[in-house]
Specification:
Bound molecules: NADP nicotinamide-adenine-dinucleotide phosphate
CATH topology of the largest domain: Rossmann fold
Number of helices: 10
Radius of gyration: 19 Å
Number of strands: 11
Strand order of the largest sheet: 1-11-8-7-5-6
Order of helices and strands: EHEHEHEHHHEHEHEEEEHEH
């Protein structure tokens, strides 16, 4: 038996079309063009690719797109000044500051300055707190994408045992909160977890966000479980080439799981589209319009 594939790419394409249509309607009926600003400090090549893709997608669906690039040696005061300027810019509804930041710029200082209403990555204390209280309107993009895929493929997750491996502010913590809010029984694991294999084998939903190539072996997967692989790891593919693999040993896990996300084409495909969705939601809220139903 082989697992069903959770086709994040196909779902993301449909979601993107809905977000684009809703953005066009907002412009037509209210004269509001959703605007996304990205901020990159330094020249990390991977971050440059992420940012470029985000701006390209925003432009492709008719959003206003702004990019600010600061040198690696920019001071914290300079970065905060750019964030304040974007906070005040009426054409910008979503601001994304690409992490990680150079060491002289404190992430906490940036997040404390960023207007929570424009915090489309949902990393500010305000949005993290609203998520805990179950009343967030802006939810971190990758966990939001995972929940949409689970809803589409599993339906109700109430009562299921979910294990989230990884406890980052960007993914693991919000993912666990969202699963809890959906009434799953959630366990969070991390590098200090004792007997991770046993915890994994109990999980009806196994979520891996570790950042280690093919770390989760097939025999950790409970037969019939849903496996969500968040990892993006570049590995040697031979012949001087590289390829992207997830945090789960895909071939072995797919023989045991009921459903599994491929890498690429699974979770990763959802993230940018969810960012556009958050920008649309922020644009509506900042203009006193109802939350778009996308
Ligand atoms: P991160 O900040 O890189 O942290 C990794 C987490 O994994 C930490 O909580 C760490 O535990 C845990 N961990 C490390 N080694 C472990 C081990 N041996 N056993 C159990 N847990 C272990 O996490 P992240 O930013 O969420 O990224 C994780 C992965 O997801 C990366 O591959 C990243 O590229 C990918 N990602 C993809 C998307 C997307 O769009 N698809 C979005 C975000 C992230 P400690 O806390 O104890 O150190």
């Amino acid at each position: 038996m082989s697992a069903g594939i959770i086709d994040g790419k196909a779902f993301a394409a449909q979601l993107r079309a809905r977000v684009e249509a809703e953005g066009a309607r907002m412009k037509r009926e209210h004269g509001v063009v959703p605007g996304l600003a990205t901020v990159l400090v330094g020249d990390d090549p991977a971050s440059e690719v992420y940012i470029r893709n985000k701006n390209k997608t925003a432009e492709a669906i008719g959003f206003h797109s702004v990019h600010r690039h600061l040198p690696a040696e920019a001071s914290e005061a300079q970065v905060l000044s750019v964030v304040r300027e974007l906070n005040a810019d009426k054409a910008v509804h979503g601001i994304l500051v690409q992490m990680p930041l150079p060491k002289q710029v404190r992430e906490a200082a940036v997040l404390d300055t960023l207007d929570p209403a424009k915090d489309v990555d949902a990393l500010t204390p305000t949005n993290a707190g609203l998520l805990l209280g179950g009343r967030a309107s802006l939810v971190s993009c990758t966990p939001a994408g995972v929940m949409m895929l689970l809803k589409e493929y599993l339906g109700d997750v109430a009562g299921l045992d979910a294990l989230v491996i990884g406890r980052s502010l960007l993914f693991g913590k919000p993912a666990a909160q969202l699963l809890l809010a959906a009434n799953a029984t959630v366990t969070m694991a991390h590098s200090r977890t004792r007997d991770l294999a046993a915890a994994a084998r109990r999980a009806d939903i196994l979520v891996a966000a570790i950042g280690k190539a093919q770390f989760v072996p097939g025999d950790w997967v409970k037969p019939g479980a849903t496996v969500i692989d968040v990892g993006i790891n570049r590995v040697d593919a031979g012949g001087g080439k590289t390829k992207i693999v997830g945090d789960v040993a895909y071939d072995a896990a797919a023989k045991v799981a009921g459903l599994i996300t491929p890498v690429p084409g699974g979770v990763g495909a959802m993230t940018i589209v969810c960012l556009m969705r958050n920008t649309l939601i922020a644009a509506a809220a900042l203009n006193g319009l109802p939350t778009p139903g996308v």
